[in-house]
Amino acid sequence: MRNNSWLVGLYTVVCVLGFLIALPNFLTQSLVENLPFFMPKSRIALGLDLRGGSHLVLEIDEEDFFRGYFQMHLGELRSFLRKENINFVSVRQVKDKIIVSFSDSVSRGVVIEKIRDFVQNISSKLAMRQKDSFLITENGEKDISIGLSQNSIEKSMSSDLEQSMEIVRQRIDQIGITEPTIQRLGSNRILVQLPGEENPLRLRQLLGTTAKMSFHKVLKDDRSKGIYPTGTSILKDDKGNEYLVDDQVEIPGIYLRGASANFDGKTGKPVVDIIFNDVGTSLFFDITRHNIGRPLGIVLDGKILTAPIINQAIPSGMAQISGDFTIEQAGLLATMLRSGALPVKLNIIEERSVGADLGSYSIYKGISSSFIGFILVTAFMVVVYGKWGLLADFALVFNIIFTVGLLTFLGGTLTLPGIAGIVLGIGLAVDSNVLINERIRSESRKDRSVFYNLDMGFSRAYSTIIDSNMTVLIATAVLFFCGAGPVRGFAITMGLSVLISMFTSISIVRSMMIFIVRYKKIRFIEIKPLLKFFFIPDNTTIQFMKLRFVGIGISILLSICSIILLFSHGLNRGIDFDGGIQIGVYANKPVDLSVVRSSLESLKIGEIYFQTFDENDNFLVRLKYQSDVGNSQNDVLELVKKKIMDVIPFANIQHTDIVGPKISGELIEKGVLGVIVASVAMLIYIWIRFEWNFAIGAIITLILDITKTMGFFSLTGIEFNLTAVAAILTLIGYSVNDKVVVYDCMRKNMLLYPSTSLLKLIDQSINETLGRSIYTSMTAFLSVLPMSIWGGSVIESFALPMVFGIFIAATSSIFIAAPIILFLGDWRRHKTN
């Protein structure tokens, strides 16, 4: 048995490339800059939770979208109907339609034909420019509705979204934020991530403002005399002053050529200087020439910015917008005017910000707990497998290097859950090595050559490695597609780690073992533990099935108690699923929360929840979604932050989150869907690879495992959020992973000993795989344990349930899944007889 020289060469090249690509991530920036020109210098980008910054999800306001398309045509349609001598009662917009009401004397057939001619005429003016853009339907006897076709809505909304993304990008570029992430989400949303930007208020003003500017005549307000002319509106300024404004736009904002922040020469206050293009200059000159002594209103997004009196005609095309601006507000307004108005209003439906200090703290927690987990796992492998355990540890080092290198090569982003994925990957990566070592140890008892034993050990472990790892990959794939935000980072790193572990254990470890055996002329491979206390033989004869009724009975009882607990006590649902506002306050010294609560209750913003973490010096403030208050969510957030800083001036607000009800509802749906899809995928895979009774046994066990884990969440009060869903899906994959190895041994023994009773075969199979099950559970447990202790509050929703779930999954393989196989086998044999 020899190593293929071509394969060894290929493995060497892959290892060297992986090391070189990953290397910059382990060096300081100065060392990276001094690397030779031929070496890669790219590093993994850190997520916002590790480097600090702001995250926003913007969604097209559908009401504004339809208003923008229909409002301009209402007057045209009225004029058209009058011109055609069609007697109508009203023409109005209702949500996503124009409703035309007629009197009884009008011929409906004629009216529909006329309206069809009208919409065909104006459709060429719209952005979509396509046939059958409009749908004309009859509503009752007197109404006809005009709406956009679904295809037109999708194309128009897509066009507005693309245009909005470009304007958002221009606005961000002009304020100097580097490395922004601007992505399209679906057909009506934009994701904006800005590293290092910790001022969410400025971002809201920058990105949440449509910036549609226009100039209007301000009329004399005679409402006290009962005079309120048609074609006018009442608009307010920032101070609440009301103005009667002519709806007719005198100068649209599209004729602006430039805008800049400046200071007024007389008052010294910040102002915004604007200049019109040629068309705008001509219009501005006409409006100022004919309205000397009258106010001209400058309107931005339906609000009066200022209404100065025209003292003289202005031919220069230059004007000045004044108001109670700060220099920052003036700069933002100038930026928005230079970038142009958004084609449609964008609502901020999700907002999260993380301070740089918290990001650094999270990096420290993540890396330190990862390192401790790595040390524990590598030490355990040496203790259990001696010098051959060192070989597995060497492969584990390569696994980490390849994971980091591949993330760097793919341009991935590392998040705190992503670090958790690498940590858990450390524990699961050695699973393949455990299987291989156990198979080689078993084969070495036979009187055959050392190379034959090596070959058979790898060959017989191969299918089990594929099956067990496939279950984890299915879970991570579901998590990637059903997850959101940083949780996707966990799915990526976890999936990469598992895939790479299959390569390192099967290819690299095999080549190294062959080389060592041949170089040292080893005639017999003795894989023994460093400490005999840790050795679990595969020829034990424990009669596990004698306890089958006890095991299933206890499991069902615990699951029932968990379900009762869920209904009676519920879950501590995080902001991801409940929506609302959450503020992370880092005081770093004892704080009297009752004083903080009293201060916040004076705002009358509903029920306030507090949760302490990290030695009780720091705390979270959570508010429900403010649906019944006059202020927006952002206004409430700023009020609460101000109150907190008034009470605790030494505190540091390190992160804030705002999640709207639409986002939280979607996340709940995705979480439930993910669990269902993962469970069904496991059922199908086990059914295909084994038999239907194995699949049913796995699913029943999964249900019991999941209910107990949910009960753990309810009992401990750990926050149930997206990270918790990641833990549930990972446990689904891990639980089935553990059972696949036992199932594979059962299937093998059923073929080898067809005349042996099923009860004895199951007991024999569990005993043969007992060492592997315990060792793998221990490596997974040891990898996650440090993170559950030192990982911090951010990751506890993942780490603590995983520690609990690993224990549950390990015991359920023996005392639940195996007895179910026995019951189903007895039932099938009884039915056959």
Automatic annotation (TrEMBL):
It is found in: Cell membrane. GO terms for biological process: intracellular protein transmembrane transport; protein targeting; protein transport by the Sec complex. Residues 345-516, 643-825 form the Protein export membrane protein SecD/SecF C-terminal domain. GO terms for molecular function: protein-transporting ATPase activity. Pfam families: Sec_GG, SecD_1st, SecD_SecF_C, SecDF_P1_head. The keyword Transmembrane applies. Gene3D superfamilies: 3.30.1360.200, 3.30.70.3400, Multidrug efflux transporter AcrB transmembrane domain. It is a multi-pass membrane protein. Keywords: Cell membrane, Membrane, Protein transport, Translocation, Transmembrane, Transmembrane helix, Transport. Residues 235-344 form the SecDF P1 head subdomain domain. Forms a complex with SecD. Part of the essential Sec protein translocation apparatus which comprises SecA, SecYEG and auxiliary proteins SecDF-YajC and YidC. Forms a complex with SecF. Part of the essential Sec protein translocation apparatus which comprises SecA, SecYEG and auxiliary proteins SecDF-YajC and YidC. NCBIfam families: 2A0604s01, PRK13024.1-3, secD, transloc_SecF. This is Multifunctional fusion protein. It comes from Candidatus Liberibacter europaeus.
